[in-house]
Write a structure and sequence with these properties.
This protein is α+β, with helices and mostly antiparallel strands and 315 residues long. It has seven helices and 17 strands.
Length: 315
C-alpha cells in the first residue's frame, strides 16, 4: 500500500491530507484562529478549589480557567512497567483502580501557582483539561519528570527487542524522571534513542528555567505545531512521500527528520528529499499543492460519503 502525506500551509490555515493508494483517508485542518493548545505547559494560578469534585480550576491566561482533577496532581509509577503503553490521559495517571487519590483540599488552595499541561482542548463553555503530571513526547520516547520507571509500548511485541530497548534506556537515562519507549523506537539505532534521551532531558531543563522566569498566569512551553507533530508522531517507514508547500514547515520538517532519525536512511538530505525511502519535496510558489495532488476533490467526495478519520497522537 502506498501512503502519501500532502501539507498545504497559508497564513489562515494548515491542511494535511493523508492518502493511501491514492485515496484520501484523513484530512487534518488547523485554522489560525483556533490553534491547538494540547501539550502546552503553563504556569497557572488556582482560582477555585472544589472538594466535592476533587478538582480545582486554574487560570492559565486563557478565556476560561482549566480543570485540574486531584488524580492528575501527582505521578505514580505503574506496578508493572511491562504494561505501560504510553503516557496516560488526564485522569488516568494513577497505578491501578484502587490507588488512593489525594485530597484536593490538602494539595491546593486558592492563589497557589502550579505548572500544568493541557491534555484536552476547551470545548464550548468548558475550559481546557489540565494535568500536573507533565509528559514530554519525543520521536522515540516519552519523558515524565515526576516518575522513575522505564516502560515499553505494548505494541512492541518482540521480547528481545523489548529487552534491548529497556537496556539502552537504563544505561542512558538521567537519575530523575520516567521514560516510556514509543512504538517508533522498534529497531531504532541505539544512538538515536540516546539522542532522544538527551533532547528530552535538555528540554525539561529549559522548561524548568522558563517556569522560574514567568509571571503566572503565563505560557511556559508551546508544543510543536501540527506539521512537526505529525512528522514526529506518524512519519514512519510506511510513508512513501511527504509533500510540503511552505518553506518554514519544510525547514522544520527536515530538522525533525535529522534529529529524530539519525540512521543511514536519512543521513543525507537533498533539497527535495529526506532519505531515499521517504522523499520530502517542496514546490516553491505552488500554494495549490492540495489541488494539484487531488486532495481538494477527494475532500469533497469524502465529505459526501464518509467522514475522514482524524489524526490523534499515540505511542
Amino acid at each position: 500500500m502506498r501512503k502519501d502525506i500532502i501539507i498545504n500551509a497559508n497564513p489562515h490555515e494548515i491542511r494535511i491530507g493523508i492518502r493511501e493508494d491514492g485515496e484520501l483517508v484523513e484530512l487534518l485542518i488547523e485554522r489560525a484562529d483556533s490553534k491547538r493548545i494540547v501539550g502546552n505547559l503553563y504556569r497557572g494560578v488556582v482560582t477555585s478549589v472544589k472538594p466535592g469534585l476533587q478538582a480545582a480550576f486554574v487560570d492559565i491566561g486563557l478565556e476560561r480557567a482549566g480543570f485540574l482533577h486531584a488524580s492528575d496532581l501527582v505521578h505514580e509509577d505503574p506496578e508493572s512497567v511491562e504494561a505501560v503503553d504510553g503516557p496516560l490521559p488526564a485522569g488516568g495517571g494513577r497505578s491501578g483502580r484502587n490507588a488512593q487519590v489525594p485530597d484536593i483540599g490538602d494539595m491546593l488552595k486558592v492563589g497557589d501557582k502550579i505548572l500544568v499541561q493541557v491534555t484536552k482542548e476547551p470545548i464550548s463553555s468548558k475550559g481546557p483539561r489540565l494535568t500536573a503530571d507533565i509528559s514530554l513526547p519525543g520521536r522515540f520516547l516519552v519523558y515524565m519528570p515526576k516518575g522513575h520507571h522505564v516502560g515499553v509500548s505494548r505494541k512492541i511485541e518482540d521480547r528481545r527487542e523489548r529487552v534491548r530497548l529497556k537496556r539502552i534506556l537504563q544505561e542512558a537515562r538521567p537519575d530523575a524522571g520516567a521514560f516510556i519507549v514509543r512504538t517508533a523506537a522498534e529497531e531504532a539505532e541505539e544512538k538515536a534513542i540516546r539522542a532522544d534521551v538527551k533532547y528530552l532531558s535538555d528540554l525539561w531543563l529549559t522548561v524548568e528555567a522558563a517556569d522560574r522566569e514567568v509571571q503566572a498566569p503565563a505560557l511556559v512551553h508551546e508544543d510543536v505545531g501540527m506539521v512537526v507533530g505529525l512528522i514526529r508522531d506518524i512519519f514512519k517507514d510506511d510513508v512513501d512521500q511527504l509533500v510540503i508547500d511552505d518553506k518554514e514547515d519544510l525547514s522544520a520538517s527536515r530538522s525533525t527528520c535529522r534529529s529524530s532519525r539519525p540512521t543511514s536512511r536519512t543521513a543525507s538530505v537533498a533539497p527535495r528529499r529526506v532519505g531515499h525511502l521517504r522523499p520530502l519535496r517542496h514546490r516553491a510558489g505552488d500554494p495549490q499543492e492540495h489541488r494539484a495532488q487531488g486532495v481538494d476533490e477527494e475532500r469533497a467526495a469524502t465529505s459526501s460519503s464518509s467522514r475522514p478519520r482524524r489524526w490523534s497522537r499515540s505511542t
